[in-house]
Design goal:
heterodimer, A: 587 residues, mainly alpha, 3-stranded antiparallel beta sheet, two-stranded antiparallel ribbon, globular, B: 425 residues, alpha/beta, Alkaline Phosphatase, subunit A, 8-stranded mixed beta sheet
Chain lengths: 587, 425
């Protein structure tokens, strides 16, 4: 029976004594100060953060909630790095923050992440990843014959985020883009990739639904075929919105072999362009005169079918009822430019983006889902949503400002521990979120990947493109496309068994555990620090805190089980840290 | 692969680890409690082991061309009906199915409201219309949760989705999430890379970190991770993993099911039910036929479906499993009776069909009917919750079962649907 391992029993007494003498038993080592556990006070950051806090507190009062205490500095620092840069902080970065004694240390860290040159590339990479998934999904541009060029999309976004392009400018460019999808081809404009695969089929219904949902927070896909029972949108509105996209076509182009630029090839799975021997395919997004389904370009109409099989007619009309001239001639009316102009005037544009960003940082938006602001789905904090939307517009659509406000707000700084004073604040039970604590959520697959790379320096070699390619290959194992007319997809990176198996046994984890010279663990092993410090170093790298007593105890046992081989014991501890709930969760 | 050399012998290390993890949970508040209504003696469990297989037709199949033909009607399409071994007629391109229809019933009076893929998939899987404030558990999660007590010996996940496309466990938590595999049964990352002794030592260290975090009371995600970890370790070392390996079947059997992803998936489903998995879902996609509906059906979808599904029914019957296994065939909705300008059919939820049988469900019959062009249900209409109630009844799951959330909100199993009584003799 007793096959349970008892650590230490197998070790000869003399050998044990030697370890003790050598100070290898880490429990006997003096404790470094628990700086990661300290909590910094919340200074007054002025407007608009003051009003955000006030409006949030008002809800707490209304519902009799007492918020959780503030998060520890380590927790907060980890959170901010994950949400702003898409990865955990390194031990150096963590220590820099926790050792900072100034009262505005949080502000200083946020400013550094947003404005310091050394973080520009990582900031741009993270938001490029997030927005690529929003605009073309995790599978966009990865299938054969796709007109989307994933690299082109990413290049456009990377340039935009690196330059902190105002959000309204970005939306205008994405909605009106013309030119070629692939980097290195004539007339390249990466912004075309948002619509490249959404305009040709089914009369651009995908473009209609995606534009309304992503930028205006309006879910219209059901109203394509019928008036929706729970949605204010009517079928007529769908087709009037759709009419704005009907001048637009994506034309398939072929680049001759000699001119095939690097990175361009036949799209293949995972966004990895295969080198093409003869030709390379890409697309060009163009606006052409639209004759209308009535064949009268001066008044180009479209027809759609009601459920009772009768036909109705639609011209371009914006959601607020604003009409534009009916001409289908591009020289007279460029319908997409008109649409973008009207979108920029709409308050839905502002609300949709601040709601999306709030949801990104706090785990829940003011509506669920974040991209449904329709009248059937009232927001949890209408006043705050309006306020943030107005502020964002007044601050010239500066996304970095919006991020700064949110991460320095009081709710973002709260602990994720549930207390007796806020147990009832539980969105998982269908309650609208009150943000009286930080809601724990799982890292996205991309965050996990970048965190592992950061924490272990595995896979950091090679150019930006090579690194992205490796990441995409790895991500592919978790994504399934449903292959229907709405382009939906699902991820298996959701806390289920395949994900746990990957963390236990996957190639990336094996690299993270490597003891080869130059590897992360090798550096830790060969440092001059005493074992206790080495163990703490691993806990800081993975969990942004020091080890607890019990954790040191188990580390001790592992050391004995590994017969004093420190490197193997550290490997075991590191494996356990990376596989823990605390690592995979943002808390 | 799953490393025979690393299998844990009948020792304690694994159980020891599992106990460690189990201990951690006592600190975590149980978010939801569920009234188990099955309290049967262990001896009875084995022989009364119920299971269900969902054949999920992703994209929305044109049931008017398959199970409820309208020959001669303007909406009828080109297919002709044929007679079957039951008292029903079905499409001429399903000849093998025609021979097993005495085991199956067609419900021709499905009438639902969700004609969007996402919403339809959610609704048909859960019995609830999508609600932004709560995530409902899908068929597999509910049934696995209710039937798990019948199989203490099960070491692999109780809800397996072959080919993806299922819906998650909702408020039941990630421990009841579908375990998704492709039709080749490949499971990644089963190779442990270290000997089993060291793995369990690592796991003990992990249990310490894991339970420390759970005890900080930060919501259910932390404890859910522990439960999934527990299931993963159980699976990692289980001989039942062999059930995923359809290539171990004789060639003749594999040929009978067909060498297609769906054929292999159906065969895998039978193997999984055999080792005790209570719920298996097999996905067959490609039904979103907005254009060229009938040529795609004739050349591809119907032959594939016909071969694999009929093989599954036959095989379950021969092995004595059909009397305890519900097989349910459905998609998220049907397709428009009207044929559009692209020779296609669009989304249509108002009048369509599903097929089911096994575990005491009366075969060879059609329940309900539609009007002469298939645009309207003319008998009592049935919806997702009724279907789910029917499947639960066939599996011996009480419809009084109620999920109670922490704030006291009762959620009835199958959303209070009514059993389709014609299906029970």
């Amino acid at each position: 029976m007793a096959r349970r391992f008892s650590l230490g029993q197998r070790v000869a007494a003399g050998r044990l004594a030697w370890w003790l003498a050598g100070g290898l038993l880490v429990a006997s080592i003096a404790w470094p100060a628990l700086v990661y556990g300290q909590r910094s006070s919340q200074p007054d950051y002025g407007e608009p953060i003051r009003t955000i806090n006030e409006l949030i507190r008002r809800t707490w009062q209304d519902y009799g909630l007492r918020p959780s205490g503030p998060a520890t500095d380590g927790e907060w620092c980890r959170r901010v790095f994950l949400d702003v840069l898409g990865r955990v902080p390194t031990v150096n970065e963590l220590q820099e923050f926790t050792r900072d004694r100034s009262p505005d240390k949080k502000l200083r860290l946020v400013n550094k992440l947003l404005h310091d040159d050394r973080y520009t590339e990582e900031y741009a990479r993270n938001w490029t990843t997030i927005w690529t998934n929003i605009l073309i999904g995790r599978t966009g541009g990865t299938e054969r014959n796709s007109l989307t060029n994933r690299e082109g999309m990413q290049k456009y976004l990377r340039d935009s985020f690196a330059a902190n392009k105002p959000y309204d400018r970005m939306v205008y460019e994405l909605v009106t883009a013309t030119g070629s999808t692939a980097p290195g081809t004539p007339n390249f404009n990466g912004a075309t990739n948002f619509l490249a695969d959404k305009v040709n089929q089914d009369n651009a219904t995908l473009a209609t639904a995606a534009t309304a949902r992503i930028f205006l927070g309006l879910q219209v896909q059901c109203t394509q075929c019928h008036n929706h029972p729970f949605n204010d949108w009517k079928q007529q509105k769908f087709w009037e919105f759709n009419a704005f996209f009907r001048q637009t076509r994506a034309l398939r182009r072929t680049a001759p072999a000699s001119e095939t630029p690097p990175g361009l090839g036949t799209p293949s799975a995972g966004g990895v362009p295969a080198p093409s021997r003869q030709t390379a395919q890409y697309a060009e997004l163009v606006d052409e005169d639209f004759p209308g389904e009535n064949n009268d370009p001066s008044s180009a109409a479209i027809f759609y079918e009601l459920r009772n099989a009768t036909t109705s007619v639609a011209y371009p009309v914006f959601i607020d009822g604003t009409k534009i001239p009916e001409s289908g001639y591009v020289s007279q009316v460029n319908r997409r430019k008109e649409l973008a102009r009207l979108m920029l005037q709409s308050e839905y544009l502002d609300k949709a983006i601040v709601n999306r960003y709030w949801g990104h940082f706090l785990g829940y938006g003011f509506t669920k889902p974040v991209d449904d602001l329709g009248p059937h789905n009232p927001p949890s904090h209408p006043e705050l949503l309006d306020f943030l939307a107005r502020q964002f517009r007044e601050h010239s659509y500066d996304l970095k400002e919006l991020i700064r406000w949110i991460v320095l707000s009081e709710p973002y700084g709260l602990s994720s521990r549930v207390t007796s004073g806020n147990e009832s604040d539980d969105p998982l039970l269908g309650e609208p979120p009150k943000f009286s604590r930080f809601y724990v959520r799982q890292m996205q697959a991309e965050q996990l990947y970048e965190s592992l790379i950061t924490a272990t320096q595995a896979g950091r070699q090679g150019s930006y493109e090579e690194q992205e390619r490796r990441k995409n290959e790895w991500l592919r194992q978790f994504v399934t496309a449903f292959g229907n007319d709405e382009g939906e997809e699902a991820t298996m990176f959701n806390g289920s068994i395949p994900q746990v198996l990957m963390m236990m046994n996957g190639e990336l984890i094996r690299q993270a555990l490597s003891l080869q010279p130059g590897s992360f663990l090798h550096q830790v092993v060969t440092s001059n620090d005493p074992p206790a410090k080495k163990i703490n170093y691993l806990f800081q790298a993975g969990l942004a805190r020091n080890a607890t007593r019990t954790e040191i105890d188990i580390a001790n046992k592992l050391l004995l089980a590994r017969q004093g081989k420190v490197e193997e014991a550290l490997q075991d501890i590191w494996w356990a840290i990376l596989n823990s709930n605390e690592f995979i969760l943002i808390h | 692969m799953w490393a025979a050399g690393y299998r844990v012998p009948k020792g304690m290390s694994r159980r020891h680890f599992l106990q460690h993890l189990a201990g951690a949970s006592t600190m975590a508040a149980a978010a939801l409690s569920l009234g188990h209504t099955l309290r049967v003696h262990a001896a009875d469990l084995q022989k009364r082991r119920k299971a269900a297989i969902l054949l999920w037709m992703s994209g929305g199949p044109p049931t008017i061309d398959m199970w409820d033909l309208k020959p001669g009607a303007p909406t009828g399409g080109p297919f002709r009906p044929i007679s079957t071994s039951g008292d029903v007629q079905i499409c001429e391109h399903l000849p093998m199915m025609a021979k097993v229809m005495h085991h199956l019933a067609i419900v021709r009076s499905m009438s639902t409201r969700e004609a969007d893929h996402n919403r339809g998939r959610y609704y048909m899987h859960t019995g609830y219309a999508p609600n932004p404030n709560i995530e409902h558990p899908s068929y597999g999660a509910v049934i696995a949760h209710e039937l798990i007590d019948q199989r203490p010996e099960l070491e692999i996940p109780p809800f397996i989705s072959i080919g993806g496309g299922s819906v998650g466990p909702g408020f039941l938590g990630m421990a009841w999430a579908p375990f998704t595999v492709d039709s080749n049964g490949r499971v990644r990352n089963l190779e442990m890379g270290v000997d089993e002794r060291r793995l369990y030592q690592r796991l003990e260290a992990l249990a310490v970190i894991e339970s420390g975090f759970i005890q900080q009371n930060r919501g259910p995600a932390a404890d859910d991770h522990r439960k999934v970890l527990q299931k993963t370790v159980s699976l990692l070392t289980s001989s039942q993993m062999a059930a995923f390996r359809v290539e171990q079947e004789p060639q003749a059997v594999r040929d009978r099911y067909g060498n297609t992803p769906f054929g292999r998936g159906c065969l895998m489903a039978r193997r999984l039910v055999e080792v005790g998995v209570p719920f298996v879902e097999v996905d067959l996609g490609g039904w979103d036929l907005h254009s060229n509906t009938h040529s795609t059906l004739t050349n591809n979808l119907l032959p594939n479906l016909d071969r694999a599904m009929s093989a599954l029914i036959e095989d379950l019957e021969v092995r004595g499993l059909l009397q305890d296994t519900v097989v349910l065939w459905m998609g998220e909705f049907g397709r428009t009776p009207r044929i559009n300008a692209n020779a296609g059919r669009d989304h249509w939820a108002r009048s369509w069909s599903v097929v089911l049988g096994g575990s005491g469900i009366k075969g060879g019959i059609a329940v309900g009917q539609t009007n002469e062009d298939g645009t309207r249900v003319e008998s009592e209409p049935y919806a997702a919750e009724d279907l789910m109630a029917t499947v639960c009844k066939a599996l011996g799951i009480s419809l009084e079962t109620t999920f109670t959330s922490r704030n006291g909100r009762p959620m009835k199993i199958a959303n209070g649907g009514k059993v389709i009584h014609e299906l029970f003799a």
